[in-house]
């Protein structure tokens, strides 16, 4: 019997496996694919703090980013430059494999090409290169991605919102320290261009409807060639309860992606660590009741729950933000004082601070009034 079985070898799962094994727990990590890190379904733009949490080498880092442009469909451009590295473009294949290697170095057992098809009564039913097997565990950690088959098998309620995303790697020359954001590329979210190797960029967008057509239109501005294309799902809004039935849900499986950016590596890794801390307590006390598991949810909520709640409130406002309002925001923020606030307080993992400072500034009162007025007009019509 294993103390902990973890399903899914993305950053959340490998972070949990590394810490569980480091605590001395008998830990098994199973991954349905034949290789860790593939397929890649990530823009790969992480904060320095996120990369530090992952504990990977510089080999995983492709670019250092210090500046960005927000480009409206009306032509307004908001440029800001921190002058220092604010984010890192990573190779997710290398990052994921290094994290898995570190988990193995701590003593975690890893099984690839193995997927779970049943769960209950402390038994995970798997199929893989070993054939069909019943794996007994004391605690299960579900890191099995946004659609989380384990949540369905256990009858757990899912996050309320799922975005579809498409990303392509294209020939496109851009400043290697600069990213481009296109708020009007999708009415639900945004589009982006992120530099990778010299002369290449990752371009993509997310949304809830007409994503393929919107991506075709958006990507056309970068040329017609595509060297790598991926699709993915981003869960937003968190599952109502991220624990139960001897199971903790981490990362995308729990719906912990950031509603402001769609990124889930930082919150996934942090939730993996919190799950491991809860796991060692439960194993030491030999108590796996829902009451004992609930400390996990309190941990991650104390850590970054406020940021997720704030981000979700802003996400619900997104349909009110018309292209004209996007252009108005870009122009309102395009002053040295406002750009200084963005540079000083901006943090892609914890955007609440910069939003708080921006919304308190008198310059934004006019924009907020425009948003409220446009929504009232929509209701009246």
Can you offer a commentary on this structure?
With 381 residues, this protein is α/β, with parallel strands linked by helices. It has 2 domains: 311 residues, FAD/NAD(P)-binding domain (3-Layer(bba) Sandwich), CATH 3.50.50; 64 residues, no CATH class. It is built from 11 helices and 18 strands. Strands 1, 2, 8, 9, 10, 11, 17 and 18 form an 8-stranded mixed sheet that branches. Strands 6-5-13-14-15-12-16 form a 7-stranded mixed sheet, with helices on both faces. A 3-stranded antiparallel sheet has the order 3-7-4. Helix 1 runs parallel beside helix 3, helix 6 packs antiparallel against helix 7 and helix 9 packs antiparallel against helix 10. It starts with a strand and ends with a helix. The mean pLDDT is 92.
Under CATH, the homologous superfamily of the largest domain reads FAD/NAD(P)-binding domain
Biggest sheet descriptor: 8 strands, mixed
Fraction in beta strands: 25-35%
Fold-level CATH name of the largest domain: FAD/NAD(P)-binding domain
N- to C-terminal separation?
63 Å
Return residue spans where pLDDT drops below 50 for at least 5 consecutive residues. Answer: none
- CATH classification, class level of the largest domain: Alpha Beta
Helical fraction equals: 25-40%
The CATH architecture of the largest domain: 3-Layer(bba) Sandwich
Number of helices: 11
Structural class: alpha/beta
């Amino acid at each position: 019997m294993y103390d902990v079985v973890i399903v899914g070898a993305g950053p959340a799962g490998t972070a949990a496996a590394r810490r569980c094994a480091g605590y001395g727990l008998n830990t098994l990590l199973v991954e349905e694919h034949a290789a860790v890190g593939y397929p890649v379904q990530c823009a790969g733009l992480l904060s320095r703090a996120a990369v530090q949490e992952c504990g990977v080498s510089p080999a995983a880092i492709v670019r250092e980013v210090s500046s960005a442009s927000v480009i409206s469909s009306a032509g307004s451009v908001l440029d800001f430059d921190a002058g220092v590295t604010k984010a890192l473009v990573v190779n997710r294949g290398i990052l994921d494999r290094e994290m898995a290697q570190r988990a193995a170095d701590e003593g975690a057992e890893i099984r690839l090409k193995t997927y779970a098809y049943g769960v209950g009564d402390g038994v995970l039913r798997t199929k893989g290169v070993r054939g069909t097997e019943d794996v007994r565990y004391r605690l299960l950690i579900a890191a099995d991605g946004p659609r989380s088959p384990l949540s369905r098998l256990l009858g757990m309620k899912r996050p309320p919102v799922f975005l579809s995303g498409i990303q392509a790697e294209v020939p496109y020359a851009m400043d290697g320290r600069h990213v481009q954001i296109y708020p009007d590329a999708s009415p639900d979210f945004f589009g982006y261009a992120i530099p990778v190797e010299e002369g290449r960029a990752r371009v993509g967008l997310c949304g809830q409807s007409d994503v393929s057509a919107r991506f075709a239109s958006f990507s056309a501005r970068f040329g017609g060639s595509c060297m790598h294309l991926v699709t993915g799902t981003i869960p937003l809004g968190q599952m109502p309860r991220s624990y139960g039935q001897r199971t903790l849900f981490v990362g995308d499986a729990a719906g912990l992606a950031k509603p402001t950016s769609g990124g889930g590596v930082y919150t996934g890794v942090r939730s993996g660590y919190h799950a491991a801390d809860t796991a060692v307590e439960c194993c030491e006390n030999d108590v796996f009741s829902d009451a004992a598991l609930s400390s996990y949810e309190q941990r991650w909520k104390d850590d970054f729950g406020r940021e997720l709640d704030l981000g979700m409130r802003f996400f619900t406002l997104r349909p009110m933000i018309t292209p004209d309002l996007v252009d108005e925001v870009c122009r309102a923020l395009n002053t040295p004082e406002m750009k200084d606030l963005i540079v000083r307080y901006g943090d892609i993992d914890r955007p609440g601070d910069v939003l708080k400072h921006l919304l308190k500034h008198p310059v934004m009162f006019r924009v907020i009034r425009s948003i409220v007025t446009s929504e009232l007009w929509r209701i009246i019509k």
